[in-house]
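Hmm, what's this shape?
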Amino acid sequence: KDYGDLQILVSDNASTDHTRDLVQACPDPRVEYINTGRRLGMASNWEFALRHVKGDYVFFLGDDDGLLPAACRDAADLLTFTNAKAVAWEKPNYSWPDSFASPDQLDVCFDQDLFWLPGRFFLWAIARGYTSYGRLPNLYTSFVSMHVVNEIRQKTGRFFESVTPDVYSGIVLAQAIPEYIYSLRPFSINGGSSKSNGQSINRPDDFAQRFFREADIPINERIPIIPGALASCVAEAFLQAQAHGLTGGLKLNEQKYHGLIFDHLKRLGRPDATVAGCETLLRLSKSGRLRRKIAAEIEAQRRKSECAEVAPVTPRREQAAVLANKRLSLNAARLGVSDSEQASSLVVALLGPYRRPAAVRRMTPSMLVAGKMWGWVRSFIESRLVDPAL
């Protein structure tokens, strides 16, 4: 309401929940309804929406996520002040009441620092398996210059070339943008609901398989998407970008990612999913040591299934509130929160109003790996490669 120079596109991907009626009932002239005409895969739906963007910067918002109040105005102010090609941020995580993972939980970081980060340095960290793709300027956690997006699209004919468009966008944009702003203060929140792709592995049905059935981009078979292993999504997207020549010559450390995928699969808590994923990984790995570990894990999970009936996955209930290391984890329902809009308002109430910084500190590669900064970057880069929403 407080920022007029804005285009809000609602891309209806053959939905059945009256999306058209809801949008047309909205009196705001900034809101535009577009329809794919038929059900598309996630990446093609995003590509369809991207072709309708008219503005200078773009950001994608999932239907169970939330923008913080005044986020567009505040982000525009920061982008104008810095002339940055992208601003990325660390999103708080909110689990909806119907979530299959920690329902009603809200996790917020109180650190509000901003940094100029070197894109290629963090792309290198991704290639080596050192950090999460969330550190990159991906279109799900960043406002990004459409000029840069269009330059990439002209090289391949379309922008999104992986079935995981958010991950892929971060990889190709990190190569294309020498420096971008990373803000620990968020502009949006990540919402996890029962229909979130990231949480679908926890569902008792085959909802997760819909993602693969609808995929209309060939999945890279060197490391395909393995349900429950975020590292496989990162690896697959990187390999797609690598194949299109969009990683600046950087190549994925595939053996490292095999190990990361295995670590993710062991933590799933569902023997059937772990066995299925490990069987796929066993076909991919050439490391004798890792293959022995995978085979042993498959056998252990099968014995677990045979010896006892596997209990269905039940939502994890968290404590009322925990504050540690500038991070707060709380039960949002106790504060009357039941959706992402209310969670976004609560985050602003906790953090206070946005204030434009007097200056943004620039982090160069040499600063990031030397002297006093090593402790900071080590914790920053080597943060666990796990999506908190999973």
Notes: The longest helix spans residues 288-307. Confidence is low (pLDDT under 50) at residues 381-390.
